[in-house]
Automatic annotation (TrEMBL):
<feature type="domain" description="Enoyl reductase (ER)">
    <location>
        <begin position="13"/>
        <end position="326"/>
    </location>
</feature>
<dbReference type="InterPro" id="IPR020843">
    <property type="entry name" value="ER"/>
</dbReference>
<keyword id="KW-0521">NADP</keyword>
<dbReference type="InterPro" id="IPR011032">
    <property type="entry name" value="GroES-like_sf"/>
</dbReference>
<dbReference type="Pfam" id="PF00107">
    <property type="entry name" value="ADH_zinc_N"/>
</dbReference>
<dbReference type="GO" id="GO:0070402">
    <property type="term" value="F:NADPH binding"/>
</dbReference>
<dbReference type="InterPro" id="IPR013154">
    <property type="entry name" value="ADH-like_N"/>
</dbReference>
<protein>
    <submittedName>
        <fullName>Alcohol dehydrogenase, zinc-binding</fullName>
    </submittedName>
</protein>
<dbReference type="InterPro" id="IPR036291">
    <property type="entry name" value="NAD(P)-bd_dom_sf"/>
</dbReference>
<dbReference type="GO" id="GO:0016651">
    <property type="term" value="F:oxidoreductase activity, acting on NAD(P)H"/>
</dbReference>
<dbReference type="InterPro" id="IPR014189">
    <property type="entry name" value="Quinone_OxRdtase_PIG3"/>
</dbReference>
<keyword id="KW-0560">Oxidoreductase</keyword>
<dbReference type="Pfam" id="PF08240">
    <property type="entry name" value="ADH_N"/>
</dbReference>
<dbReference type="InterPro" id="IPR013149">
    <property type="entry name" value="ADH-like_C"/>
</dbReference>
Amino acid sequence: MNTATQRTFAHIEDDQSVSLHTDAIPTPSNGEVLIEVAFAGINRADLLQRKGLYPAPADASPVMGLEVSGIVLATGDDVDPLKVGDKVCALTHGGGYASHCIARADHCISVPENLSLEQAAALPEALLTVWSNVFVRAGFSAGERLLMSGGTSGIGTLGIQMAVAMGGEVVSIAGSDEKCEMLRQLGCKAVINYRDQDLREAFDEAGYSGKIDVVLDMVGGDFTSTCFDLAAVDGRIVCIGIMGGVKSQINLATLFMKRLTLTGSTLRRLSTEDKTQAFIDIRTHIVPLIAEGRIQPVIHATYPLAAALEAQEAMQTGTHTGKLLLDCQIDLA
């Protein structure tokens, strides 16, 4: 482990450039751990924050980055069972684009032995997003059918595997034949190429129209109305993204005739207690499946910390398949 007294962090300036800065390594308080960061995840929330559309809470770190993997370097009190030297991945309250980061101990996951720290950095945000929205908010259970929009994203590639491993059936959409095939290999029963086909017609021909129990909608806009048509009676639609726009025209008759539930959330709106409970559930139900190799993170590319802006721009294009990461391992000696 590094014994430096300063951390290095990435600062994105004027939405156009990134520079590396140093300051004192933070000290963990009660219930917290200091992580020597190996890798940090890039998330769409970072892009929105950079553009001023998703401001960080007042008590959050001004440094970007919501998830990391690395080695526990120091601990506060009451962090049992974590200890110095443990390999962990963690959800953070900002501060992930750095060589060192503070995280709540109850928002950490011990890295399974079959995963590298690079792979582990792809876990926290996606696991929490899928668990809290698909399994908790939408109540998805074995035997049900899930439509995973944004299937090739970091959330999508992990969420598909989670739903299949928990006994569900998953269908998805993608923008190329290659991506469609990749999602089938992850376990999707059917994948529709939205660039070549009308989604309603294609799902109808495949026998899924009106038979989707849960939709994780990362698109919003006009896609939300499509979700109404595809949903089964008592279907649940959880909207967590607005890549297709913030406004949608929906048919209220479909809403009440099918007894649909339309809801949404953001992780920053989850209480600390809800996040903690979600991580307890994830450790119980999902981490063992990861340790067995039944759920594996998909990494698209890893960038150096100084290329944080380039990594965010790569996410903006939507051409990636899987997770985009930052390598935060910097020699501070």
